[in-house]
Every structure is written in structure tokens, then in C-alpha cells.
Specification:
- The strands form 11 sheets. An 8-stranded mixed beta sheet has the order 39-40-42-41-43-44-45-46. Strands 1, 2, 3, 4 and 5 form a 5-stranded mixed beta sheet that branches.
- It is an alpha+beta fold.
- The chain has 13 helices and 46 strands.
Length: 789
């Protein structure tokens, strides 16, 4: 579950550096009929916001450095098109060039995608077309580019391309081997390998049918675990670890086109809460083996207690070098998997013997509430002398160095965590605020992590493996990220602050980097995203008994002696917070505020970034504490800022935020006087197993919590205006959620408004629909909160 329509997603716009050609001029803004409710500048912004896919178009995406750090590869579209092309940035000269365009490959033909590929991109929140992904060989010389069901191998130096043809089905998740000699992909539920030199394709698995597939991750892995891979090639390209998925016995969900009943509906197995999950197993094959059916390899099945630990959450196959020289030969390290029980309270990291499939336990993780995942770990050192692991067992995330047998060598961040500043209350402090591992540099024996003691910020830190104190690389107040090369000190720093547009700075690492000297600047990757016509000016404060993080967005023409109706933008679910130090996150809310509102976003309990206890306080009940936190924070804000009129408060959100908005209007009409619920979950028994049971527990063990967290329980109590919006083709939060809610409201005799979005999924990328949708939402608030000008 993710925020997809809300205004506080990280959007980006960036000017081109002066030493490069100027980016193309933005397309003219389409004029729209004027109305009394919308000022001309705001009308232009909304058209621009929609036409640029919320200003995401034109940003560099999928940034990767070549192993030697000499080049940076990335994808980028135009400012008003979803079609991406592949570019290369030269670190030495600071110049960019086009490596490959979708137009060159397709020759003007229309791109086609299968329903399975569209569903996979939906799981990845990917709206791009054209060159949507690419993979690179270990030496950086060869690229694989999938486009419209065709596979192209590109020589990066010359630009020469070769198409790999196949008589089988559409390729899913194609990847290039590290040596650049093989391409692996999944076609119609089976795994195939193609020899790049000869173009000969070979089938590696058999037996796929309507319920059995090989090489692809199941629904909950993609949607909830952030695991999108279903196969893993050994570092020397001789063996393959792959997933077998059996959906037999699962409930089947259908999505039809309500506008055209003649179209056949799409059918998907769905892991409904309390119901059956897909059965996942793993096998290893030797690619040289031809003893199986039709010359396929014979699988060696990986052995673990799948009854106790049915969830395969993480899988890695590391490469091990005889020395740390970049030119040293790489051999296979141990395949490593992390499996969890159904309740997600017990997990094991297992080392797999690729010859026998036997597993050895490296470490055990337990948590009374739930175990959080980070896909970055385990990260094995290149010489095989150990691995890095992220654990939250001590109350905050810690980075651990562990020996090959899983025993703890040292905790790399614990001492620094104890010295870092904490929240005023002491109880909810994040300490160092470690969030995730970004990169492991085995040769220099340092790790790079994202961390911040302030949960509204993210910074890049360098952590020595010898136990010395971490050093911060990013400078300023904002949201910073990084992309590193395997064998070079060059890196790309992403910068998003409240004061400037987003930037991507290419750096050559300094010997001893600091925030003031993080590395020599080699240049910037160009963004051609349009500059928004709105300049957000949020005020970030902390209020209330728990020092809630709050963003306040006032109108540009704010008058200190007036009182303004309040709109609460909410997500509220167990996730990262909405309140951050990135100006891109406040564009749409600033536009809303400019119409005579004060918009606020509040991060209460259940949000990540303020320690284990804060995050897990919502275990067993997803609404009571978070809803109370929103109310408490609003009252504290009103006490401090008298311009907030709490007699006129609206609330809106999407996905979990839509669920939260519906609950807020039904349960606290004394505070929330109207609401907009976008793609809301109505009944958690109709959502997926992994997400719901993680936070709520198994249904039979927590019936009261499920009832208290169910919107349908409170439909009879609705007394204020509520607009429900939902895409009919949503395969994350299915359309049935809103239909059930409207039926319960109707049968209870409650008034409500309903806006179905025909044919749309959980994402709403279509520009016209985006524009009309945001206009409708603003008009709803203007109608029911009556701003006074």
C-alpha cells in the first residue's frame, strides 16, 4: 500500500547546469475556462501539475554508475511525456549524450504491454513508457534494454544494438548476466536463457500453468515486501536460483470493464486476509545440465521449514573474490534467504548449499509485534569474510557486521546512536536515526547509510567497518540520497530541500569526506522537469504531548488577522511520514491553500522514523491511536496558531489515507466536518494477508481489533459530507471496498458522494483525470468549508 495521489510525494524539477545546452522549452500550458473559484495562476498550475505527471516527467530515473565510475547512466523523459530514453553522463567532462531512444528502436510503432507486465509495473508504481528499465554487465560494457516485449543488447561504447528474438511469450523481468553473455527472463510462467553471442534461447523450467509459475515474485512480495525478483543468477553465471509459485486454492478476484461489458475481465489470485497465500518454494539449477524434461536442467530444491516459515522475504546470491582487487575473479558465494512465519514475528536468515539445497541458520530474528524488512541486507563483503545486517531488535535500527557463520562481530552504529540527540520527551527519540544501507564498499571497508536524528530529514553517512564513528556526507537541511559505483569513489548525490528544486550532483569522493567537503563536484545530471508555477512555503513545527511533526501550508496572500478553514492531508498508516524537508512534497497542498485554506499534515504514532515503540504502537488496531494523534495535534496547533479555524476542518487522503479520512469523518465529526476518501480500504478482511496480518495479527486472534479498525462498523455514524473516490480497475485496494462502504452508508440512510473512476487503477496517471480529480476535490472543500475571502 502506498501514497500515489497525495500531494506530498517527492516530485522533482531541476534546471540544467550552465555548461550544457538548455533543456527544451516546456510545452504551452493549455488554457481552461475561468471560474470564480479558481484564480488564473492556480488554474495554470493545475493544468501543469496534471500534464507533467505531478512534475515527475523530465527527472532523471534509474541512475547507475559504471563500475569504474567514469560514466553515469540514467533514464529521462521529456517534461510532458511518459516515454523515457537512455542517457549517459561523462564524469570527466560533465557532458551528456543519448545512448538509445525508444523512437530509434520502435521506429514510430506503438508500444504494447501485456496485462502481466502492466500489473508488475503497477506493483512497482511505474508509469513510464519507452525505455522503462535496463541492466548492465559487471564491467559496464554491455547493456540490456527491454522495450515493448523485445530485448535489445547494446554495446555501450559504440551504441551498436542487437535484438534477441524469441518465439515464446512476452519477456517478464529480463536481466543481463554479470559477464554480459546471458539474458534471463520469464516467459509465460517459465524461465528462459538466451546466449547473447548466438541469439539461441533455451528453456530452463517446465510445468507452468494457470496456477504454477517459475521465476516471478508473488503478489505480496511485490506489493508489500518490495521484493520484485523471482530468480537470482549466480555470480559466475553457471547456476540459477528461482522461485516456484503455486496459487492453487487461493481466492480468485476478477476485474471487469464496467464501461464495456463485452470485454473479458482480468483474473488474479488474491491473498485475502486470513485466507490462503501462494505457496512459494525455491530451486537451484545448473545451466549446463540437460537431463530434465525437454533438455531442461534438473532442479535441486532448497530445504527449509516452509510450514513454519512460509514467507520468502529476501534472497541474495553474492559474489566472492579471492582478493579485493577489482580485477580479481569472482566465484559464487552462498545463496542467502530470509524467511518469516505467517505472523511475521519470527524470521531466519538461512545460508543455502547450492549443491544439495540444504540450509544453515545464520541468525534468528524475533519481535513481539512484527519484523520490519530492509531489502538491502544481507550485504556480503567481497572477500566473503562476513556480511552486514540491519536489525531493529534493540529498539532502533542498527547496522551490524557479522561473521560468515552469522555471529556478531560488532554493531557499527550503536555507540553513535547513544550519543546522538534525542527528542525532548526522551521516550520517542530515534537516536542516530538509521534507516537503511545504501552501499557497501568492501575494498575501502566502509558502508554508506541513510540516517537522520530528525525524522523530517534524510542524510547520507559513511560508516567505517572497523567501528569508528560515522561521518555525515550530506550538507544542509533536506532529503538526501546517494548512488554509488562498485569499484570507484565516484557517486551521485540527490538533493531535495525546502529552499531549492531537486538536484542530482555527481561527485568524486574526497579522501576524508565531511558535510563541508563531501567530494569534488564533477557536474550535475540534467533534469528537464518543468518549474512549478507554485512556490510552496511550509512551516515545519512540533506540537502536542508527543512532539508531533507537523507541516503548515498557508495561502500565499495569508493575512494574520483572519481565520482560515483547515484541510488535513493524511496518510496515517504504518509508513514513512508525510512531513519532510522537501519542497516538492508541498506543491499541490500549496495550491489548495492558495484558495483560502490552511493545509496541515501531521505525523502521529505508527509512522516510521521515531523508533520501534512509536512505530509499533498501532499493533492490533490501525486507527484509534493515530486518529487521536491527529485530533490532539490539531488542538495543539489551534492553541498556538489562532488563524486556524477548527470549526471548519476537512480531511483527505488516498489509499490508507482514504481509509483514515473515512474513519475520521465517521468517528470524529466534532473535529472533521467533511472528508474525501480516495481508494479507501473499507474492511481489512478484504485486503491482502501480508500487510494486514503484519499490523493486525491473524483475524481469529484479534476479532475486536478487526472490528474496531473496520470502516463498515461506523458507516451508521456518518453525519458530515464525505466524498468517496475509487478506480474501478484497482488491483491493490479493490473497487469492492468503496462499493461495500457506499452500500453500508446507503442502507444506514446516510448521505454521501461517490466518484468512480472508470478503468483506472490505484494510480491515476492520466493528465485529464488528474486535473479533473484535483479540481473536484478542491470544489468539495470549498463547498463544505466555505472559505471567506
Amino acid at each position: 500500500m502506498a501514497v500515489v495521489v497525495g500531494s506530498l510525494a517527492l516530485l522533482a524539477a531541476c534546471t540544467a547546469p550552465g555548461d550544457r545546452p538548455s533543456p527544451p522549452a516546456p510545452a504551452p500550458v493549455a488554457s481552461q475556462p475561468a471560474s470564480d473559484a479558481f484564480r488564473p495562476v492556480d488554474e495554470q498550475f493545475l493544468s501543469q501539475f496534471a500534464a507533467t505527471n505531478r512534475f515527475r516527467m523530465g527527472r532523471p530515473q534509474a541512475i547507475r554508475l559504471t563500475p569504474d565510475g567514469s560514466k553515469v547512466l540514467f533514464l529521462r523523459s521529456g517534461p510532458r511525456t511518459f516515454v523515457q530514453d537512455l542517457y549517459e553522463f561523462d564524469v570527466a567532462t560533465g557532458r551528456e549524450r543519448v545512448l538509445l531512444t525508444a523512437e530509434q528502436v520502435l521506429g514510430g510503432q506503438e508500444e504494447t504491454l501485456t496485462a502481466e507486465e502492466l500489473a508488475r509495473r503497477e506493483r512497482m508504481r511505474m508509469t513510464s513508457r519507452g525505455i522503462a528499465s535496463y541492466s548492465m554487465s559487471k564491467d559496464g560494457s554491455t547493456l540490456l534494454v527491454p522495450l515493448s516485449g523485445r530485448l535489445f543488447v547494446i554495446d555501450r561504447a559504440t551504441g551498436q544494438k542487437k535484438e534477441l528474438r524469441s518465439d515464446a511469450g512476452f519477456p517478464i523481468d529480463p536481466k543481463l548476466s554479470r559477464d554480459g553473455k546471458l539474458v534471463i527472463c520469464v516467459r509465460e510462467g517459465d524461465v528462459y536463457a538466451t546466449d547473447v553471442a548466438t541469439g539461441i534461447e533455451r528453456r530452463l523450467t517446465t510445468g507452468a500453468n494457470d496456477t504454477i509459475s517459475h521465476g516471478t515474485a508473488e503478489f505480496v512480495a511485490q506489493e508489500e515486501m518490495s521484493r520484485f525478483d523471482g530468480y537470482w543468477l549466480s555470480p559466475d553465471s553457471t547456476r540459477l536460483l528461482y522461485q516456484r509459485t503455486d496459487t492453487t486454492g487461493m481466492q480468485t478476484f476478477h476485474i471487469a470493464d464496467p464501461i464495456d461489458p463485452t470485454k473479458p475481465g482480468q483474473t488474479w489470485p488474491y491473498p485475502r486476509t486470513g485466507g490462503k497465500n501462494a505457496e512459494v518454494s525455491l530451486a537451484i539449477i545448473n545451466l549446463a545440465d540437460t537431463q530434465g524434461p525437454n533438455g531442461t536442467p534438473v532442479p535441486v530444491w532448497v530445504q527449509w521449514d516452509r510450514a513454519q516459515f512460509p514467507y520468502l522475504t529476501i534472497a541474495k546470491w553474492p559474489g566472492i573474490k579471492s582478493s579485493l582487487s577489482p580485477d580479481a575473479p569472482t566465484r559464487n558465494g552462498p545463496p542467502t534467504i530470509f524467511v518469516m512465519n505467517r505472523e511475521q514475528t519470527h524470521g531466519r536468515l538461512l545460508k543455502v548449499d547450492p549443491d544439495t539445497g540444504a540450509t544453515t541458520t545464520l541468525l534468528d530474528e524475533r519481535d513481539d509485534a512484527w519484523i520490519s524488512l530492509r531489502q538491502s541486507c544481507p550485504a556480503w563483503l567481497s572477500d566473503g569474510s562476513g556480511f552486514l545486517w540491519l536489525s531493529e531488535a534493540g529498539g532502533t535500527w542498527q547496522l551490524e557486521l557479522r561473521a560468515p557463520d552469522g555471529s556478531l562481530v560488532r554493531t557499527l552504529t550503536k555507540d553513535f546512536d547513544q550519543l546522538a540527540p534525542r527528542e525532548a520527551s526522551g521516550k520517542w527519540g530515534p537516536g542516530f536515526g538509521l534507516d537503511d544501507l545504501i552501499h557497501l564498499d568492501s575494498a575501502r571497508r566502509v558502508a554508506y547509510v541513510s540516517a537522520s536524528s530528525d525524522p523530517t530529514q534524510t542524510h547520507v553517512w559513511r560508516v567505517p567497518l572497523d567501528g569508528a564513528s560515522p561521518a555525515r556526507l550530506s550538507n544542509g537541511r533536506g532529503m538526501f540520497g546517494a548512488t554509488f559505483s562498485d569499484d570507484s569513489p565516484a557517486w551521485v548525490e540527490s538533493q531535495s530541500t525546502l529552499e531549492s528544486v531537486m538536484r542530482w550532483v555527481v561527485r568524486r569522493d574526497a579522501a576524508s569526506p565531511t558535510p563541508d567537503a563531501p567530494g569534488n563536484v564533477a557536474g550535475e545530471i540534467t533534469s528537464v522537469a518543468e518549474r512549478p508555477r507554485v512556490a510552496p512555503a511550509p512551516e515545519l513545527v512540533r506540537v502536542g504531548r508527543f512532539n508531533y511533526d507537523v507541516a503548515i501550508i498557508r495561502p500565499e496572500d495569508f493575512e494574520t488577522d483572519r481565520m482560515y478553514p483547515v484541510i488535513v492531508y493524511v496518510y496515517g498508516g504504518p509508513s514513512e511520514g508525510l512531513v519532510n524537508t522537501s519542497r516538492e512534497g508541498y506543491l499541490l497542498t500549496q495550491w489548495m491553500a492558495n484558495h483560502g485554506f490552511i493545509v496541515v499534515a501531521i505525523d502521529g504514532r505508527g509512522i516510521e522514523g521515531r523508533g520501534r515503540t512509536w512505530y509499533r504502537s498501532i499493533k492490533g488496531n490501525l486507527i484509534d491511536l493515530p486518529l487521536q494523534d491527529q485530533v490532539d495535534a490539531l488542538r495543539a496547533l489551534s492553541d498556538r496558531y489562532h488563524e486556524l479555524d477548527l470549526s471548519r476542518v476537512g480531511i483527505f487522503g488516498w489509499s490508507f489515507g482514504g481509509y483514515f479520512s473515512a474513519m475520521a469523518t465517521m468517528r470524529r465529526p466534532d473535529i472533521f466536518h467533511c472528508g474525501i476518501a480516495g481508494a479507501p480500504v473499507a474492511d481489512w478482511m478484504d485486503y491482502d494477508t501480508y500487510y494486514t496480518e503484519r499490523y493486525m495479527g491473524l483475524p481469529e486472534q484479534n476479532p475486536r481489533g478487526y472490528e474496531a479498525s473496520n470502516v463498515l462498523t461506523y458507516c451508521k455514524d456518518l453525519r458530515v459530507p464525505l466524498l468517496i473516490i475509487h478506480g474501478t480497475a484497482d488491483d491493490n485496494v479493490y473497487f469492492m471496498h468503496s462499493l461495500k462502504m457506499t452500500q453500508f452508508l446507503f442502507r444506514a440512510g446516510r448521505d454521501f458522494d461517490f466518484l468512480p473512476l472508470a478503468g483506472l487503477t490505484h494510480m491515476v496517471p492520466e493528465p485529464l483525470v488528474t486535473e479533473r480529480l484535483q479540481r473536484r476535490m478542491l470544489e468539495y472543500f470549498m463547498q463544505h468549508l466555505a472559505p471567506r475571502h
